[in-house]
Amino acid sequence: MAIKGLGQIDKEYDGSKLRIGIIHARWNKTVIDALVAGAIKRLKELNVQESNIIVESVPGSFELPFGTQRFIEYQSKIGEPLDAVIPIGVLIKGSTMHFEYICDSVTHAIMNLQPRVNIPVIYGVLTCLTEEQATSRAGLVPGVMHNHGEDWGAAAVEMSTKFK
């Protein structure tokens, strides 16, 4: 049993002046859609205007780090810079080593992206051993676990406003 997310402290942060990007993989669509919806729901609860939530997609989780960097650069280039971005992906273990390589590569690339882009990049990648774990963490199994996308939305607002 997991303890739910970030707790109540995130209510201290006001996202009304923020532009938050969400870039998601298209693999595991049902889980991805739920996670994106959870992130958007929480961003709105923290006063981020719907027009300031920009959503894009890439083919898979492996493409998230480069897609995230290009997404941030493009938004700056058009004069609408982001305050934070949430790359969202779902990796589910199969019968080969592919899972381990992709998890490790994507995790390190997203982590190393933050100093280069100089905005918060929230780690929104589920790395699950089973489909059941993924659906639970997306809030798709009632009463089992909460939607982790909500935590990622809250983290984006906190990290965008906390040290200004």
Automatic annotation (TrEMBL):
Q: Which GO terms describe its biological process?
A: riboflavin biosynthetic process
Which EC numbers characterise this protein's activity in its record? 2.5.1.78
Q: What class of enzyme is it?
A: transferase
Give the InterPro entries listed for this entry. LS (IPR034964), LS/RS (IPR002180), LS/RS_sf (IPR036467)
Which CDD domains does the UniProt record give?
A: Lumazine_synthase-I (cd09209)
Q: Which reaction does it catalyse?
A: (2S)-2-hydroxy-3-oxobutyl phosphate + 5-amino-6-(D-ribitylamino)uracil = 6,7-dimethyl-8-(1-D-ribityl)lumazine + phosphate + 2 H2O + H(+)
Its Gene Ontology cellular component terms are: mitochondrial intermembrane space; riboflavin synthase complex
- Give an example GO molecular function: 6,7-dimethyl-8-ribityllumazine synthase activity
Q: In which pathway does it act?
A: Cofactor biosynthesis; riboflavin biosynthesis; riboflavin from 2-hydroxy-3-oxobutyl phosphate and 5-amino-6-(D-ribitylamino)uracil: step 1/2
Lineage top rank: taxon: Eukaryota
UniProtKB keywords: Riboflavin biosynthesis, Transferase
Function description: Catalyzes the formation of 6,7-dimethyl-8-ribityllumazine by condensation of 5-amino-6-(D-ribitylamino)uracil with 3,4-dihydroxy-2-butanone 4-phosphate. This is the penultimate step in the biosynthesis of riboflavin.
| Family, per entry | Belongs to the DMRL synthase family.
How it assembles, according to the record, is: Homopentamer.
Per its record, how is this protein called by name?
6,7-dimethyl-8-ribityllumazine synthase
